[in-house]
Amino acid sequence: MIQESELYRKVADACRLETAEAFRLQSRIHRLRWFGRSDIWVKRDDELSFGVSGTKLRKHASVIPALKQEVIEEVVVIGGAHSNNVLSAAQTLTENNIRITPFLLGPPSQILGNAKLLSLFVDDSEIHWISRSQWANCEEFVNSYVEKRKAEGIKIFVLPEGAHHPLALPGSLSILVDILRNERESGVCFDHIFIDAGTGMVAQSLLAGA
């Protein structure tokens, strides 16, 4: 199996990043006491941070340093009104003093859940709502907005749905490095890994790394 240090070097080289903040993210594992029938463990990425956690935090931990290197001033984030990625981006971008401009499917009939939490970071007047009938043209609307902002001298970046972008690759792969650490420290060797998937980027990264 590939070693942790070698994997880190390969990913850093591929992404042209000297460091990746995501690789400093470490979470514990613990065994589930499930009637004694199976040796099942849970990885607690939910404990990595408050608000943003899990794979979204890992992705953004490699995206944000790259944006800061390029002195990006504004990020267009695409997604749904209740998207975990949009809400995560709102928090991490705000923390790093980068403006977020959401292009979202909606508006929803009720402002609940993630949409309610998003309102803590972004005023509704700053959200570009796109109806379901026009959602197929979302990329066109985003490109038009981006060109306008560039003409105004703004350094802008587009973060697609689910943060499915090459800049998120180090963060996506960091979970594999962390699982290797968990195995070494706990003296276990996992033969199956189950992970929830949206865009599938982290699942693909696990397959690629394995």
Rg from C-alpha positions? 19 Å
Count of extended strands: 6
Discrete helix count: 7
The H/E string reads HEEHEHEHEHEHH
Mean pLDDT: 87
Order of the strands making up the biggest sheet: 5-4-3-6
Written account of the structure:
The structure is a single chain. The chain is of the alpha/beta class and 210 residues long. The protein has two domains: 4-56 and 167-209, no CATH class; 71-165, Rossmann fold (3-Layer(aba) Sandwich). 41% of the residues lie in helices and 13% in strands. It is built from seven helices and six strands. The strands form two sheets. A four-stranded parallel beta sheet has the order 5-4-3-6. It is globular, with a radius of gyration of 19 Å.
For this entry, give a set of tags.
alpha/beta, 41% helix, 13% strand, 4-stranded parallel beta sheet, Rossmann fold, two-stranded antiparallel sheet, 210 residues
Annotate the secondary structure layout.
Blueprint: H1 4-14, E1 29-31, E2 41-43, H2 54-69, E3 74-80, H3 84-95, E4 99-105, H4 113-118, E5 128-130, H5 138-151, E6 156-159, H6 169-186, H7 201-209
